[in-house]
Amino acid sequence: MDIIPTMVDGAVVLSLNNPDLFTQDSKKEEEEEAVRLVINIHNWVKQIKLEYLVFDFQEEKHINQFFLIELMQLRKRLRIPFLFSGVLNESKKTLESYSCQDSYPLFWTPNDAIRALRIQHPGITENNAKHHVTFGESLTEILKNDIKLNVKEKKQKPKATSQDYLSLL
To answer: Is 161 inside any structural domain?
Structure first.
């Protein structure tokens, strides 16, 4: 399970990629994967300073319930608009049990969600965050690449020589 950022109607939409639905060996591994994914979403949102989250579940029949619960916990922590589209009955019940529809309804398409977001928060999708997004690539891969780049940047800093220290005198 992973999230792939896409651009829809000029806004960032996170699409669920659920290819390994039944390949988990145990429920514990499934829960760990869900937690890791939500942590990745949190770190990514903080890194690029995104002020909203629009999820497109693309009418997936089976979405990990633990993932949805962790996502609702993230919603409380981030305090930014969370909008959902393409949600089917099983997932809809979980989202509604967390009063997810209090601020926004559940939408059929991401375009509808973006339209509602722009009505309630004009200009929110026009910030610079979307210019720092790699679209169409797995969020897990994006974060791995960013970590590798940061490590390389730290290693490439020139070390001060004794001659540099003498020039300060």
So the answer is: no
